[in-house]
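Contributing new records

If you add data, match the layout below exactly. Sequence lines come first and carry their own label; structure lines follow with theirs. Keep one chain per record. Anything else will be rejected by the validation script.
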Amino acid sequence: VNSEQTIFDNFQRMTIQESPGSVPAGRLPRQKDVMITADLIDCARPGDAVEVTGVYTHCPDISLNIKNGFPVFSTVIRANYVRKMDESDVTEDLTDDEIFELRKLSQDPKIADRIIASIAPSIYGHKDIKTAIALSLFGGQAKEVGEKHRIRGDINVLLLGDPGTAKSQFLKYVEKTANRAVYTTGKGASAVGLTAAVRKDAVSGEWVLEGGALVLADRGTCLIDEFDKMNDQDRTSIHEAMEQQTISISKAGIVTTLQARCSVIAAANPVKGRYDSSVSFFENVDLTEPILSRFDVLCVVRDAVDPLLDENLARFVVNSHSLSHPSESRTSKLAEANEAPVLSETNVELIPQDLLRKYLIFARRTASPRLGNVDHEKISRLYIDLRRESLSSGGMPIALRHLESIVRMSEARARMHLRSYVKDDDVNLAISVMLESFFQSQKFSVMRGLKRKFFKYLTYYRDDFELLFYLLSRLVRDYLTSHGTVTDDSGEVTLEIDLADFDARAREMGVTNTGEFLSSKAFKDRGFSVNQDTRRILKVL
């Protein structure tokens, strides 16, 4: 090599990888090395979304030359231009007609209920989990305080419950629906696999930085299954990523900070396999208070025996299997879908998954809700009452972070409506989600007392059908408790509920007209019927 005619220049080797949201199911993201020089050096950090323009060429691979004893070439991209992408780039694929359709969809007054019902529609019930996941997908508004301190807008959710309660299925649904989602498991991910790793480059021999799952999920969602199976050392490594949403690295001479602006949805199992309601929340989980306080919503799922719920669940599963059989032609399914809208178990029209994905992307891009003229005093009083009760009840620890969580969830619900401001209805729903999370983490003996104390805060909008189904389930449970399961001559158990008693209790809950509910398809699908002669509601078990 003639050193006089050789041009020496600074260069940097960067590895780019396909975005997790753009990779088809079942395929690994592809990687390619990029050579950048001159002023392009340090133009991006691990986890950034970039668009690279360059020349696809080859260069000698020194390490393989030495190993194999003959010239070996590897392919690289010599970059001419590197552009950092932001959230505005993901909406470029939406046409004007699609944007018009999405804005028209947002005008539906029940759009929030439709979105919640459309989260994992193949899973029956679990409305609290679906609500928490929907709020997490839309997220709140991140804030910069004095250009120095950043307050996160992403909502973290922990699903804790008995085996077989569809926790992992919820995570898999989010992986397919969210724009950018990275799925990992507690056993299969170490601390460096979640945050960032430092390894030695084979070509230059220098230490290079590789981003982990939280870095790759920047501006998206990181899904962690079997969260309780992680080592304590690995779990503490994500403390900074969950609150400050940055990852600080100081290894092998590399000192830097990576962005991890993502929401975390994790699933865990109780210590003894099943959740024990007779002991406190901390005795059921093997998680420390610092990590629990970083979750905005805790969803405790119990596999309790409920005759009415079990029957509805069994009927729902059987119907799902019969409608999803592969032998049915696609054209017949499409014809059935076009004849009538698909309804959820709460009688709300569902949103197709593709349309929901576009709506989610569009909402995060365009809606920036602001906390305006809402009842600030109500939020402050709730926080004070929750703090006082959390110290004595031994349930979920309430910290100042949970006050911010109420604000974030209020903004997320406003974003579902594509609004630029937060209404009292949004705050009421956020308070109900926070209180439900607080109640579920309590002992069974203190849960009822807490519900009576905090009933004044639960003034949020609920669907009349949902209220009436809840009332009906209570009446069925009372009937079974008092009468037992007495069979008739045909061997069937027939429940009879007085219609006048049902109407009276419905009026106490604020529902004056039950006629539409009693004649609805959802009422009949659950096996109920009305005998107008005897004025009784009948159900055959």
